[in-house]
Amino acid sequence: MHWLSHWNTRSLAAQFFITGGVLSVGTMFAIGMLLTQVIEDAVIRHTGATTALYVDSVVAPVLPDMQTEDLLEEGSAQALDEALTQGELGKRLVSFKLWRRDGTILYSNEKDLVGRKFPVTDKLRQAFAGSLVARYEQASDPESEKERELGNPLIEIYNPVLQPWSGQPVAVLEFYETAEGLGDSLTRTRLWSMASVALLTAIFFLALSAIVFRGSRLIERQRGDLKGKVAELSELLGENQALQRRLQRASQRAAELNESYLRRVGADLHDGPAQHIAYASLRLDSEMLADSHTTTEEREKELSWIRSSLAEAMAEIRTICRGLVLPQIDGASFTEIVERVVEAHEARTGTTVAADVDSDGSEVSTALKSCIYRFTQEALNNAYRHGGGVRQSVEARLRDGKVRVEVRDRGDGFDPSEVRPTSIGLAGLRERIDSLGGRFEITTGEDGTVVTMSLEPVEMEEAL
């Protein structure tokens, strides 16, 4: 439902304030009305009891034995007339009736009602049961026609007349008393009681609201923080998944490159040392060496060719081995690794490399050392083979675990689009660096070529 979805979008504090406000107002009115009714009943009962006590003290002495009289004798009726019309009591009483248990009026200041019989009401039954009954209302009983003509609420009181020696009710006095000022007093009492309940309810509700609003703000703040954490974790999860896919691709590519590298090593062994060894083997089986007529000079010349072929084969095998096997770099520092690569390259090619190495002495993992060595080695080899070794330079930096190595030459450059995807050199470097979570960049042009690798500590921790 639309209103329910709209309600759920509100904060907990707003929901509490609206719901609590409605319930508090309803409760305030209910308690106020109940309290007012209780006070009103207490005031009326107290007023009725006071008047009944006063009437009882004035009227009871002049009443005859109600057990033996059907109607009051003329002397008793005259005494009641005088007692009920004089003094303070006469000012307050509007009407007066003396009832018998069967509903007959034994006496009344309204003479036309004396001796008449009316239906017994619940109020009259309660009074004959021994209870004082007091009501503040418009007169509604059949015998109260003149009281209704006044048009104002009156206090109607039913007071049981008790037999002196048994304490049993033998008659009931009913009288209507004026209630001047009682209505205003009850209205003021009602207003004051409802105002007091409203004030206490408001204080209680506002105190609870302050606590709830503070808790709601805390919950909203924690919810915002939780959403931020969830968003951050989702972002990290996405990055982790992307890195995982990247590493999977790098692993697959590395496997392919290793296979290609093995094929290249096999091709180098076949095209190089194997050819020289095969040539030497053929020369060893030549007739010139086996012929006894061959002169010593010719035999020495033939053996010299054989030794030369075998020496070239051994030299090429050593060269291939040097490319396959890393020197001992486990205990070497970052600076020593770069300098060893540069020195080996200068010794092998006879060229000069300008090296600029800056390190803060941070620890470098073995995997990263191997990557730095291979990157620098392969980049310098490419600079020599494809750039002619012109103005070769290496710039290496290690700061707070951040590694950056840049190899540059001033050759003619090349077109990167012409590099085959299966090229072992550049592709191998890229995959090796990608596997550690680093970045590999190539910039080439007429002014030469720059090959750069860079790794951050966080990237390396995630990759390892």
Short description:
The chain has 464 residues and is of the alpha+beta class.
Fold and architecture overview:
The protein has 14 helices and 10 strands. Strands 2-1-5-4-3 form a 5-stranded antiparallel beta sheet, sandwiched between helices. Strands 6-7-8-10-9 form a 5-stranded mixed beta sheet. It has 464 residues and is an alpha+beta fold. The protein folds into 3 domains: 10-188, Beta-Lactamase (2-Layer Sandwich), CATH 3.30.450.20; 272-325; 327-464, Histidine kinase-like ATPase, C-terminal domain (Heat Shock Protein 90), CATH 3.30.565. The two termini are 52 Å apart. Helices cover 60% and strands 16% of the residues. Strand 6 (353-359), helix 12 and strand 7 form a beta-alpha-beta unit. Helix 2 (12-59) packs antiparallel against helix 7. It catalyses: ATP + protein L-histidine = ADP + protein N-phospho-L-histidine. Its EC number is 2.7.13.3.
Q: On the 0-100 scale, what is the average pLDDT?
A: 76
Beta-strand content estimate: 15-25%
What spatial order of strands do you see in the largest sheet? 2-1-5-4-3
CATH architecture of the largest domain: 2-Layer Sandwich
Low-confidence stretches: 459-464
Q: State the share of residues found in helices, binned by percent.
A: 55-70%
Q: What is the CA–CA distance across the termini?
A: 52 Å
Biggest beta-sheet profile: 5 strands, antiparallel
GO cellular component, one term: membrane
Domain Histidine kinase/HSP90-like ATPase: 367-459
Catalytic activity: ATP + protein L-histidine = ADP + protein N-phospho-L-histidine
Enzyme class: transferase
